[in-house]
Design goal:
- By secondary structure, this protein is of the alpha/beta class.
- The chain is built from 15 helices and 12 strands.
Length: 399
């Protein structure tokens, strides 16, 4: 690794932050059931404690995303939750409304043909905006399970119009420092026509909503073989890329740890961001977030794995010689252009990561440091005891 490469990688790491999800520390599973873990978080206090632990080890996870119905109780002051998070060294990040669990959402939320249900869903999101303002959150992250399962079940255009109307109304409720992120997913739980099925639909809806609405790209929400980095490049060029939900997948929305299946794909995504910054001479404002289901791996270990992998791939992408790449592209030197990416991807950035961690008084290996700390063993014992004392039963599916 050259001195220039070391400098580039360190500069990239200095500006790279990743948000952890509160639900990633709790018991999660599949629609069929859960495999429980003794150290899984029971309540919000546990979640922010775990998030703070991850941040202390990695140095790049200062915020934790929250789910409104899972992390806040009716009647409680949300600022108390923000204070609790700060005591553990983190802040509350993206606010995620819950528009899929209530029985009223059987036929959808913003796309429901019942105006009363649409109004209730909108009010929940407006309340989430206010909650975000109370805790100092910049992002409202929207994912909808809305869609239809059979041809003719609903009006595709009518549901589109309903979404446009609700998203415009929600945008109007945003504070001046808040951004609304619109996520998309091709299928599940809707299996015929998901209302926001791809990045183009999310882009159009965000543009119609207003200037503080952007698109959120979940790396698992794509069909196999889809060119995610091309989607990212287009959204960057349109100034419409607002954020990511990081995970990996073999088939579809598998919610695996980042880079566990195809690290080169995530590298290529990061490369497009670095290339954009080099061309425009400015860094795009992007919210990097994790959204994974750690059903078998330990919650904290899996989170650390993803964070460290994201740091490594982001640093590697910073090593691409952008000037040389542009020269090769201008001359249609296909092999040379490809090899510039491959050279960066296969560069060992461990020295840069070690140097950056030393400079920031962080452990050389966050995963090893976590295992040596005994944090998980202590948490497991404490949480086993508290579950027994509270008579908590564990059942159901997913989160």
């Amino acid at each position: 690794m050259t001195r220039t490469d070391l400098h580039r990688a360190r500069e990239a790491l200095n500006s790279f932050v990743v948000e952890t999800p509160s639900w990633g520390f709790a018991d999660t599973g599949t629609r069929f059931g859960k495999f429980f873990q003794d150290a899984a978080a029971i309540d919000f206090g546990d979640k922010v404690a775990d998030a703070g632990h991850v941040h202390a080890l990695t140095g790049c996870c200062p915020t934790v995303a929250v789910h409104v119905l899972w992390d806040f109780k009716a009647g409680e002051d949300p600022k108390a939750a923000a204070r609790l998070a700060r005591r553990h060294g983190v802040k509350i990040g993206a606010i995620n409304p819950n528009l899929f669990q209530d029985q009223g959402y059987k036929w959808g939320s913003f796309g429901n043909n019942d105006p009363k249900v649409r109004a209730a869903a909108l009010q929940h999101c407006v309340d989430s905006v206010a909650l975000g303002q109370a805790v100092g959150s910049e992002y409202l992250s929207l994912w909808f399970a809305d869609g239809t399962n059979y041809p003719g079940q609903g009006s595709i255009r009518g549901r589109k119009h309903a979404f446009e109307e609700s998203l415009r109304a929600l945008h109007a409720a945003l504070g001046p420092k808040q951004t609304m992120l619109v996520e998309y997913k091709p299928f599940e739980p809707a299996f015929y026509a998901t209302d926001i099925a791809d990045w183009g639909m999310a882009l159009l809806l965000a543009k119609k909503a207003g200037p503080r609405a952007k698109v959120l790209v979940d790396t698992g929400h794509h069909y196999s073989g889809q060119n995610i980095e091309q989607i990212v490049a287009w959204l960057l060029d349109e100034d419409m890329l607002g954020g990511f939900h990081f995970n990996d997948r073999r088939y579809a929305d598998d919610d695996l740890t980042l880079g566990s299946i195809d690290p080169y794909q995530i590298f290529r995504v990061f490369h497009e961001i670095h290339a954009f910054a080099a061309d425009r001479r400015r860094w795009p404002k992007i919210a990097y977030m994790i959204d994974q289901c750690h059903n078998e791996k330990g919650k904290i270990e899996a989170t650390i794995q993803t964070v460290v992998m994201a740091q490594e791939l982001y640093a590697k992408a910073a090593l691409v010689d952008q000037q040389a790449l542009r020269r090769a592209q201008a001359k249609n030197q296909v092999v040379d252009a490809e090899l510039l990416l491959k050279k960066a991807f296969f560069t060992d950035v461990a020295p840069a990561l070690a140097d950056w961690r030393r400079a920031n008084s962080l452990p050389a290996d966050p995963l090893v440091a976590h295992r040596r700390s005994g944090y998980e063993r202590v948490a497991a014992a404490d949480r086993r005891r508290r579950r027994q004392e509270r008579g908590l039963t564990r059942g159901g599916s997913f989160a």
